[in-house]
Design a protein that fits this description.
With about 375 residues, the chain is an alpha/beta fold. The protein has two domains: about 35-115, no CATH class; about 125-380, TIM Barrel, CATH 3.20.20.20. It has 14 helices and eleven strands. The chain has helices at about 15-25, 30-35, 50-60, 90-100, 105-115, 145-160, 180-195, 210-220, 235-245, 270-285, 305-315, 335-340, 345-360, 370-380, and strands spanning about 40-50, 65-70, 80-90, 125-130, 160-165, 205, 225, 245-250, 295, 325, 365. The longest helix has 19 residues, at about 270-285. The two termini are about 35 Å apart.
């Protein structure tokens, strides 16, 4: 018999760390403790006061974490600095308590760190896209009348648990549409959803900013409002509350007619995060529960390629709000800016973006190609 020899290999990313430890045979009491040590956090801190940076650096080092700071912090050359906190989940947990006793804004930092620790995970869902108009940027998403109903049923069979119906294009420079025209485009679909009770098989979403259209859809069995203006109209929030519907709040700089005219951000992560914080606060103040709110960073809506990439790479930040996160980059032009490709050939790029966003915490994937996404996400989940 061959003598046993020690061997080792480096493990990849583990989604469910507790399951790995349990399978290894670790005692139950140690699983929760060790799992916290297996998750690494990188937290970017903007404009931290210099005394706070020095305190946090020492506190982090004292527990085995670290704070990456620019040269000059120790000698207080400037009043504020950007820093990156590096530590395990256990380290962040300790610092979220420890810094509550410190001055220079560290109490607020401690409270913010707690939000990252309490972020929850949601079940992964696919949202199919149906455009009841003839000018959406991707021709393959345009369906009217009976064809739309057939496509909805196909998407549900292919794995979609949510269906998003829209009648007004939001592509850059799209023409504005009147209330009567928008309603006429979706009326037949809404009626069919109600008459055939399709809402029993999927959650239907109305992609609209028009209260009259939204109301008609909600009365037809729809349960989600997808508002690209980020619920700036209080009437939209009121409708969500009245009908017990969910509300998707999307970030957009400008309007569909102006959004891609030289969009600028000092820091896109900070500005989108601040926007969500303000919108959630208003919704909750009006009576809409946070668990009924979905957040969409708005890929391609008033953003350059670098803004889109930053938001996708750092999607995990937005989990701190405790809301479901929606990613909607299906066949969008950001793919063309990386590898020149027409909309009809952007499925591979779409899958790459969506898988990265899901890895960061997105739980709703809005897409044109349901079957392909169902396969890709099923394989991705198996590898976690």
């Amino acid at each position: 018999m061959k003598k046993a020899e020690m061997k080792l290999y480096r493990l990849g990313t583990m989604e469910d760390k507790k399951a790995v430890l349990k399978a290894l045979g670790v005692e139950s009491g140690g699983i929760a403790i060790m799992a916290k040590k297996m998750e690494l956090f990188y937290v970017c801190i903007k404009d931290l006061k210099t005394p706070a940076a020095n305190i946090l650096k020492q506190d982090a080092l004292s527990i085995g974490a670290d704070l990456a700071v620019p040269g000059g912090v120790i000698t207080c050359e400037r009043e504020r600095y950007d820093c990156v906190l590096i530590g395990t989940k256990k380290h962040i947990e300790i610092l979220s308590r420890k810094e509550l006793a410190q001055p220079f804004g560290l109490k607020r930092l401690a409270r913010e760190l707690k939000h990252f620790l309490t972020a929850r995970d949601y079940p992964l869902q696919i949202m199919g896209v149906i455009n009841a108009n003839d000018d959406s940027f991707y021709a393959g998403s345009r369906f009217v009348a009976e064809d739309a109903i057939t496509q909805i049923k196909t998407m549900i069979d292919d794995g979609a648990s949510m269906i998003d119906i829209g009648a007004v294009s939001s592509r850059p420079g799209a023409a504005m549409v009147g209330i009567d025209e928008e309603l006429s485009r979706v009326r037949m679909i809404c009626d069919a959803v109600k008459e055939e009770k399709l809402y029993q098989h999927a959650l239907f979403s109305i992609d609209s900013t028009t209260p009259e259209v939204i109301r008609y859809a909600l009365e037809s069995g729809f349960g989600l409002i997808n508002d690209i203006t980020g619920a700036r109209n209080p009437k939209v929030i009121e409708l969500a509350i009245r009908y017990g519907a969910k509300l998707c709040i999307m970030h957009m700089q400008g309007t569909p007619q102006t959004m891609q005219e030289n969009p600028q951000y000092e820091d896109v992560m900070v500005e989108v995060s601040d926007f969500f914080e303000a919108r959630i606060a208003q919704c909750e103040a009006m009576g809409l529960p946070r668990e009924h709110i979905i957040l969409d960073v708005g890929i391609g809506f008033g953003k350059r390629l670098e803004h889109n990439l930053t938001l996708i790479k750092n999607m995990t930040h937005f989990k701190k709000f405790g809301c479901e996160l929606l990613i909607a980059a299906s066949r969008k032009s950001m793919i063309d800016k990386i590898v020149p490709t027409p909309a009809e050939a952007r499925l591979p790029g779409t899958l790459a973006i969506h898988l990265k966003a899901v890895e960061g915490g997105a739980s709703i994937v809005r897409c044109h190609d349901v079957a392909e996404h169902h396969q890709a996400l099923s394989v991705w989940k198996a590898m976690q």
